[in-house]
Amino acid sequence: MEAVVALRRTLEALEAAQVENAFVAGWSWARIAEVLGVSRQAVHKKHAARIKSRYPGKPPGRKGGSG
Amino acid sequence: MIFNRFAREARRSVEAALQEARMLGHDSLGDEDLLLGILRADEGIAAEALASLGVTLEDARGESEAMFSGALASIGISLEDIQREAGDAFDLRIPDKRRIPFAPGAKQVLERAVRTSATLGDNYLGTEHILLAILENEDGAAVRILARLGVSPEMLEEGLFAARSG
Known about the structure:
The complex is a heterodimer of chains A (67) and B (166). Chain A has 67 residues and is an all-alpha fold. Chain A has one domain (2-54). Chain A has 3 helices and no strands. The longest helix of chain A has 23 residues, at 2-24. Chain B has a single domain, classed as Double Clp-N motif (Orthogonal Bundle). Chain B is built from 9 helices and no strands. Chain B has helices at residues 8-24, 31-41, 44-52, 57-73, 79-86, 104-119, 127-136, 141-148, 153-165. Chain B is globular and about 55 Å long. Classes of the chains: A mainly alpha (67), B mainly alpha (166). At the A-B interface, helix 1 of A face helix 4 and helix 5 of B.
């Protein structure tokens, strides 16, 4: 049971990290959402504010608009 | 509301417990966080007793993290591998805007602490009552952290009562 809790917490952090990594690599929200299998709105709501606060302005390596 | 009768040290310890839980990625506050909070706030009888047994915040935190990665390893998952794969973006910390609720076990600890305070005839709720209540939960993560540091509930109870009379 302890492993389940640890896994849930790790999964949350891993999703946040990989979405951030994809965003920084220039992926659009639409593409991130499609790969995760959720709606664009859902992924934006869950991750956009956190990631944008970590990268004020344009993140390094990212081209173009907000997707 | 039991918070009103909290001694200042006890209140600060619970606030520090929330900070520890957030930092360590605990999406609910458990009894181990209450223990870490007492160590982090470093005030009151409980902190004194823990210090007298050589228990430090860093060591306790380290054991908590070791138990976390150990739990993952028990189902074949390497936290280190995940961290390496995800890079610097991987952070277990709970985002600031997300609320961290008390786990049922931690709520019970605070309820037991209030009763322990009454049983001892104290008119305040101090860190020692919280720590005594934590120790009653023998299967809890806090007691297991202390055991890994070579400290048994009996040793700590003794230390607590010595610190109270000292």
